[in-house]
What we know:
Chain A is an alpha/beta fold and 398 residues long. Chain A has 9 helices and 17 strands.
Amino acid sequence: MPTLPEGGIRVDNVWKRFRADRAHPNLHDQVVGLTRRIRESGPKWRWVLRDVNLHVEPGQTVALIGLNGSGKSTLLKIISQVTHQNAGSVESRGRIGALLEVRSGIHPDLSGRQNVYLYGAILGLTRKEIAARFDAIVDFAEIGDAIDRPVKFYSSGMQVRLGFSIAAFLEPSILLVDEVLAVGDAGFQQKCLNRINEVVQSGTTLLFVSHDLAAVHATCDRALWLANSVVRADGPTRDVLALYRSAVEGDAALSVVRDGDGATVVKAIVEGPDGGQVVSGGDVHVTLVLRMPEAGWGPLYLGVSEGTAMPVFVLRQVVHYGANEVRIHCTMRHLPLFRGRYSLWINMRGRNSEGKKRRYLPWQPITNFEVFGPLPTEAPGGVMVLSPVHVDASWEID
Amino acid sequence: MADTAEGVGGYPMTLRVFDPTEIPDEPDPSLLHHHRYKIGKSVRDLWNRREIIYTLAERDIRATYKEATLGILWAVITPLVTLVVMVFVFKRIKSFNTGDVPYALFAYCGILAWGYFSSAFSSGANSLLSNKGLLSKIHFPRECFPLAQLLESGVSSALATAVLVVLCLWFHFVPHVQAAWIPLFLVIEVIFTAGVALAASALIVHVRDLAQVTGVIISLGLFATPVIWPFSKLPVRFQAVYSFFNPIGPVIDNIRRTFLYGQSPAWGLLAIALAGALVYLSIGFWTFRRLEADLADIA
């Protein structure tokens, strides 16, 4: 087997399990463990990673995506050797820098300055090396004089900024970022993404765990999708995200609790003009048939999303209905969406004829549809694009 | 734009989709991973990262004393109070024959040496649990946590020797030149303490009940060790065995022999104590290494 280059990661057939019955051991546990061993029935285990493979070249940027509990953070911990796999092999070369929360990781009673030195030492830098980078860290974190104040008096934003700056400026060969940027304000988030891009340009390997798909898209070339402790897809970020979104959408449709006050969606159709395809920039006809338990009135909301509960846009119309089937037709003009798979979400509330408040339908997806048209233009590296909005543009260059 | 992106460095990347149902429920037995630890490599890693120990110790010293109004004075007050209580009690109940040396001086030598062990042991034993946050986020030799506590307690004990100086002035006592041997005795004590603290810290994570046991050990140890009574009270035929299992006994005895009485060290018992301390250290380090792999999962 060839030796790994600096900054490379190799994960082969990795399995990891945790105790399913008890997280914290105590004396009773050990004693019971002894008798169990005699009876030959061990403790219960739960696999959190099954047969995971991941080869990362130096300088590659890889996002780990998946729902909570899918094993993303555990994989990061195995790569950084904080914990060990139960089967398979893991190898990495170079200094690994993990972005950790200042509050949990480093001492809140110490000043920012002392925390920088402590964390640097943990990463394996000498005091001299840390001192050389110290000013850059403080500058980037926008902390100023507060650097000599105990970290516990920092705002949560300052803590995150400091934690990020430390990890990003100590020049690790492999940088692990685990869902921490969300706390900072929008301006700082963008600054962080720019810094991550700079670090990556200089050859650092990045492993990025986030639920913020826009940030994932902006930072990573490659994505690994973990679901229920196994790898579902691995490849270019855009392709994996598309798969992930449509799966999340499917799951969301299943998991929504229809605990509304009795209204049901009988039919939901999304189609282009004359029953044809939905295309970017074209008209969309939505036909809904709802069965109402009683007469009433109220606003009806329709939203279009990429699968998540956050819509790209929302439409609202106040509707009066009788106590039977209601047929609603809505035409959306010049649909500003790129090619892709989208879902239609609905929400309906209001009052019945006696004036009582009603939640007829909670916010939920009711159907999916394909949009045909151009693919989105890639934003420059490190820039987050919020929505897949398609704008027709013409250029003139003199 | 192409449907497949180019990875950085020109590695072509294509989308690969996997079917989760093809993955077996259990890993193939040939893949099973047994975490291996090599003592030599562990020691080398630890040495290379010794800076962390200093920094962690500094962190704890600052954090402990910064918040308190009396600050670093507490390092002196605690052993002083112990001394006052011991002198007060033992003057009344029973006095030990300490020769020409005032009992307060005699007792304080023991309190200092024991104080180092008890503080390093109790904080070292809990160090992994109290540093959960760091432990579960980032990898570095975890021995640094208990060892940093050894260093921190060392600084506190060094400060507490100020009381010893004051006592000497008070009683017009001039220390004997044989006191130059003391650093050697302290090495034995540190080796012993390191071994016990390493083992205890890793064991406590696995068996939480042990956290209570350390308190019991320290309370009992204060009386089971010649802290307030002379080592010579121990029957001669037990002294060798005792020295092996509790190296602090001969350490305290020899501090007194040299510093207070100007005698030469009792080399035989010291050698046994050193052997005992080294056995403790080996067992402690081995235990730590064995249990280290699971620490982040259960801490």
